Each structure stands twice: as structure tokens, then as C-alpha cells.
Amino acid sequence: MAAGVKTVRGAAPNRTLWKTIKGYKALYLLMVPGLLYFILFRYVPMFGLVIAFKDYDIFKGIWESEWVGLQNFRDLIDSPDFWNVMKNTLVISFVKILIGFPIPILLAILLNEIRHVRFKKVIQTCIYLPHFLSWVVISGIMLNLFSPVFGLAGTFFRTFGLEPVNIMAQKGTIFWVVIFSDIWKEAGWSTIVFLAALTQVDMNLYEAAKMDGANKIQQMIHITIPAISSIIIVMLILRIGKIMNAGFEQILVLQNPVTRESIDIFDTYVYREGLQMGSYSFAATVDTFKSVIALILVTSANKISKLFGEEGLV
Amino acid sequence: MKKNKMIGKMAAAGMAVCLFAGTVTGCSSGTNGDAPASNSSSQAETGGQTSDKGEEPVHLKLFLTNKNIVDGSYAKTYIEEATNTKLEIVQVATKDLDNKLNMMLASGDWPDIIQCETETMESKLLSSGKLLPLNEYWDDYPNLKNARDEETWDVMRYNDGNIYAIGIKNPNPLSIIAYRKDWLDKFGLDIPTTLDEYYEVAKAVSKNDPDGDGLDNTFAFGGYQNVDTSWFDHIFGAYGALPNYWMLQDGHIVNGSVQPEMKEALMYLNRMYNDGLIDPEFVTDDAKRWQQKVKSGIYGAGVTKIHIFDKNNWSNYYKPFKESNPDGELVYGPVLQGGSENPVGIRMASERGWLRTFIYKDSKNVDACLRLLDWLTSEEGNRFTQYGLEGEHYKWEGDKLVKLIDEEQTNELDLNKFFIGNTVLFDDASPEIFDAFDYSHTECIAEPTDGIFIDELNEIYPKLEELTNTRYIEMIVGEVPIEGGFEDFVEEWYSRGGDKLTAAMDEAYQAKQK
Fold first, then answer.
1. HSE-up of residue A51 (Cα within 13 Å, Cβ side)
2. Which domains does chain B have, with CATH numbers?
3. Which tens digit of pLDDT belongs to each residue from B209-249?
4. Which of B14, B284, B285 lies nearest to residue A235, judging by beta carbons?
5. Which fold has domain A70-136+167-307?
6. In B, which residues are within 8 Å of A280 by CB distance?
């Protein structure tokens, strides 16, 4: 798609649009399914957002329901849970980026240095395998593993003469359980993109650097990282765009009465207060609010990256 | 720059990967549990029992809790033939019932027959004006009318005077305070009658390794992320109130959660928790896991499922329990004294029954809906859905029913799966269960507000119930100190709408008394 857009821009201005399209019809044809997908599943449903400004009653339907203006938004901000949810969403997302974002890059660089192809492939497969497990399965495994009575963690604590702790059920520990289980699950998957980028780095650069006496660390700092910096920035911007999504499925399965408030995020809040209780207006309100913030974040991240001379998204 | 372009392409590829991943995960959630009916099963050719033999079977859409009923199975086909219907059953896990139904209704997709579990959903449906008043039709459907006594129908009556639903009739309550008799005997302890005695028993069953495996893996009791599912009621009740339960105090309705006595109950529970007498996993366990633990017999003193007393293995509790504990034996005990001058028993379910079933008023086939309900609630239909046919699946030995097929076969035939307004039968149960039922009636407390529906109940109460569960559990496990913490909770409970709700509840109750 990116290539197609570039060529169109380069086309002579006196040509009509239709001619341009005709000229690149194969490319445009390729674009159609994607475009349809976005129109059908992303843009059309957006009209449903009007229910954020209504008191939506499922028995009356969207148009018959009463307009309430910004009342839903006021209710959201006045809600006693709002600031807690907002704080949790941002903190969890931010820490996930802070710790979780550099790890795939590091992994990719390390993997790239492995010369034994077989070994490299095995490691790569092993680390991205957890990505394909669903959170429900993982939480089941974790509950059994960290069970203070029947699990490995209990045995571990007892062997060292300590009182077993249920790390899944303590306000203090659950935050780190969230962060590290997410990294464990997703780090390997994100590594793939960086690994692919690394294969494109010009080998001559390394040879030249070696001739000049640069060691591995210096090569990494002065060649590898600059070479993949663009993709790092792009991935970072994309990641920032998702900052308001701190991981719905994961948090939902890791929540229990004790930990609920310490890791409650917008999505789980919407699910509980909105969907489970059938207040769709409220759910739509929270989602609209979330999306607006995410939009602001992603555009400013894009601007900033351009300021630093990187390519950015658009 | 050449390289820059390359990176641009890489970025595009990267994005494509991300988008693709997003699409895949987006699709994966959703429609499990649905079993849309296919037209594969045999139609009513073999001759139904109904008079309108010649007519086409009527297509009905049912929204039910998930029992894994399979299309074309023996029981389903039999019911379809008997009622001249073709059933399309949308089956949803009980905890997702509300969620899924909300979405179906929001998209205008009304099932002909709807089942719901929570009072929140029930209240919403009742006030929508889209339900069929059963009482207006039941002169033509006597089985349905006679399925419940006048008293039950009275509780079912909505404030407009109509009856819209029929629930599943179960013994009530379905839980009982029970102890492991073999463990009591082992330690030479008696069935406790006071809180102090109970503490000794709880300590013995959790700390003295009653199962003799050398591991600290037995407890007095456990639970699953709630304090309002009756598994803590023997302690709360001993102090005179039950959390998330409406009670009568000096002629007025109050909520048990915010009664001052609960503070002492929480302290008692906190002490138990700190001494390791309560299964610490009650914070993270779900109902399934808890059930497995009950069946494996690691809990020795507390409220438990009454099902386990049936030696004929009702709901499959007794057999697995006996398999892991060949010497295991349970005995029930009384409400504990010493906490309050007026201790109460354990909570009861609504007299309206479990999983209420409604008929959609604008359904094109109201008659077929009623016909189906009428047949299912008739003696013939009720016994068939639970046990099958006489001679084929069961036989009578005196007044005792003996099953001729095992559980696996029952399951395969889809028997004991159609829980639609039925009365649960105990034709094959062992005498012990009836003794347990009798005993449990002496130690339970009914909710005075049963059958009252007001808007506040629907809007405020679910959030307060969740708040109670959260704060209570925090205090029991010691994440929040009870001293001060309980007072904060009471204040929070009232300020989040509890005062308004209590007043409205009391008003509705007083109005109903007149």
C-alpha cells in the first residue's frame, strides 16, 4: 500500500484521477479488500457511537432512545472509580512499554548474533510460542503454578522455610504479575519484526567496522541500532497508540476481589459496568473517551518522532 | 536513500503483521456456546403424541443456559415430536447469560423462550412489557398452571398482577452446615454448637492432618471469590446477619452487609484465615475448582453442597467424594451459638426458583411456546426430561425409581438437560438426602424481599454487591484492617446509593405487606 501511494503522488498532475487508477489498476484492486474491511468493520460501526450521547434502551432501539447530551461523560468523570481506572490504565501501559518494549529488541539482537541456525530457530520458536496461548489458558496455568497450597510456588516457599504467599491474590504483587506475564507472552512475538529488520542490515558495514577494530558492543551501538531505529520508532508509535488498551483479556482473567481495584483498567471497567449490566451507553462513552485520548497520543508521538528526524507513520 | 525505502517496506510489513494479528484475535472471541439448530435431525415423521399430527412442526428459538444439548439427540427429538416443534436452542454459559441476552435483544433478535438467572436481567425484562403473561393463558394449559402451588405463583406475581415466568423448582436451600464425621471421630470431637467449639474443630481438620498424607492440604472450608454464595454463612449467620441479603429488623428492611455485627464476624474470619483454616485460594478459585475441591473432600467443617448427602449420586457429588475418601462420611450440624443473641441460618434461594423461563409476547408462535412449557411441566414431560422412559431408561421398585442407564448414557441421550420450568425429582434419591433436606429447613432464613422488583435493585444493587464482596474479602485476608476499614466500607456502601436503595426496598416491602 505504501508503495502504491508513493507512485500516485509522483504521477503527473494533468492526468485525471481515473487515468491514474487505470494505470495502476492491479495495485488498486489489491487495495479493495482492505478498504472494504475498514469501511465495513471500522467506519460504519462508528455511527453507533451516537449512543454515547443517548440513554440507550435496548427495548427502544438506537433512534428511539432519548438524547442526553454529555450526561454520560459527566457521569463517567464524576464516578468514584474513574481516576483509579485512568491511573491504572496509564501506569500499567507505561510500565509495560518501559520494560516490555526494549526486551524484544534486545532479544532480536542477541538472536541475530547466534551463528548456529538450528539453535537460533529453536530458541525463536520457543519464545514466541506463548503468544498463541489464550490468556484464559495462561491464567489457569498460573493459578496452578502459584497456588500456595497445591502449586509449585507453595512447595518452593516451604522448601526454604517461608510462609507461602499467593502472589495472584495480593495488591502488592499482582501489578508485577501483570507486567511480567505480559512480557513472557508477547516478547517473543514482537521479536520477529525486529529480527526481520536486522536481516536487512548491510553486511558490508559490519566488515568495515571490524576492519576499523570495532568490537561487538561497538558494532551493536553504532551499526545495528541505528540501522533498525526507524522500525523501532514505528513500533513505538504504534505501541503508544495502544496505550489506553492495557490488556483487556489478561487483566480480566487475573482480576479477583482483592486485586480488582489495583489493576482495574478502562476495558475491564467497561466490561463490568457497561456490558455485563447492559448499560451500553456508558460503555460507548468510556470507549469514545478512550479513543480520543489514544488519537491525541498517537498523533503527538508521530509529531515528536518527526521532530527528531525519523520517518513516522504518515 | 535505498535503505530508507527498504525500512519503509519493512514497516509496512510490520504493520500488516500487526493488523493481521488484530483481526485474528478480534474474530476469535464471541460465539462459542451457540449451537444453531441445523435441519439435519429427523423431523416429526415417526408420529408425535400430539393431536395436531398433520401440521408442520413449529420452529421455536430458545435461549437457555448451556447444558450441551445436541441437535438430533434422543431427548430433544422426543420432546420435539411430543410437542410438534422444532427447537433451535441458543445455549450460553450461565455466567454469560445476561451479557449475551443483552446483545441479542439490542440487535432485535428476540428468542421465543428466554431463560435468565439474575434478578437484574429479570427486572429489566419484566419492566420492558415484552413478556407474555402466563396467567392469561393457563386455563388452556392446566399442566403449567398446576406445576406450582398458589403460594409460589404469588411470589412470581409482578407488580402489575401478572405472572410472567416459571422457575426451576429445587429444594431450598441447597446448602447445609456439615462436618466430616470420620475426622471428628478421629480427633474425638463432637459436632460443634458454638463458635468456640467450631474454632477447635476447624483447627483440628485443617492443622492436624486428618487425611494423614503428611501435607497441610485440608481446610475447614473454601469458596470462590464471593462471600455471598452461602459458603461463609455459618459464621456470618452466627453473628446474626448475612452479607448481600435483605433482612427484617424491627419491621424494616435492612441489608445484612452493613450491619455492625458483621465486623465481629469479619474478625473471626480474619483470625481463621491467618491461622490457615480457610483455603487461601478462595480468593482466586472459580466455582469449578471449588467444586472439585469439595468433591475431593479437602474441606471438613463448614457450609457445603447438600447434594453430597445423596448416596445415589445426585449431581455427581457423592461418588467422586467417596472415591477419594473411602472412609469419608458427612454429618450436618446446627447454627452456631455464641456470636449473637439472634443467630440466623444460611441463605435461601428465591422461592421463584432457579433460571426463570419467559415467553416473548410478540413471538409468532405463542401457542407452541405454551404447548412446549405445558408439556415440559406435565408429570409425564417432567419425568421424561429427567429420567427418560419407563422400562427403557428406568424402572419402578415400589415407590423407588431405579435407573437402568448410567450417567454417561444419560448424558448421551441428553436426558436430565432440559431445565425449563421443571421440578427437580428425587424419585431415585437415597433416604439420607431427604433427612438432610428436613434438617436444612431448620437452619435457613428466607429473604423477606423475595419477589420485589424495583428499578434501584437493578441499577444500584449489583455494584453494591460487588463492593461488599471486594471489601469483605480484603478484610478477611488482611489487605485492609478491619478496625476502621469496616466503618469506611459502611460509609462507602451508603454513599454509593445504599441509603437510597434501602429506603426504596423498605418502601416496596411495606407496600406489599398491606
1. 23
2. 58-170+353-428 (3.40.190.10), 175-347+448-513 (3.40.190.10)
3. 998 888 888 999 999 999 998 999 999 999 999 999 999 99
4. B14
5. MetI-like fold (1.10.3720)
6. 102, 106
